[in-house]
């Protein structure tokens, strides 16, 4: 459940450089907000993503698949205390070009 005090910030480059919109923009921003330092990762569940996007499970999977295929997010299986979790990290392709625009 999303905290009533929760929020995400949409990075300007996601709109101007990456040309994201709709579900891709929101999901990329959600993951970026948790992983932009290059150390931390997004550990949220598919249900969390569904709630943020206000969409179905299948739409979340399709959106993740699209962002992964565009090399904008990285999916990783991590093992913590004997359990497998999936994490996501936002990637910043062509970082040099983003800062120049």
Structural class: alpha+beta
- What proportion of the residues form beta strands (DSSP E)? 15-25%
Give me the side-by-side strand order of the main sheet: 1-2
Question: Percent range for helical residues?
Answer: 40-55%
- Radius of gyration, CA atoms, in whole angstroms: 14 Å
Largest sheet: 2 strands, antiparallel
N-to-C SSE series?
Answer: HHHHEEH
Count of helices? Answer: 5
Shape by Cα distribution: globular
Residue windows where pLDDT falls under 50 for at least 5 positions: none
Instruction: Give the N-terminus to C-terminus distance in angstroms.
Output: 37 Å
Question: What is the average of the pLDDT values?
Answer: 89
- Overall number of strands: 2
Structure characteristics:
alpha+beta, two-stranded antiparallel sheet
Explain what the structure shows.
The chain has helices at 12-16, 22-35, 46-53, 57-69, 95-100; strands spanning 73-80, 83-90. The protein is α+β, with helices and mostly antiparallel strands and 101 residues long. It has a two-stranded antiparallel sheet with strand order 1-2. Strand 1 and strand 2 form a beta hairpin.
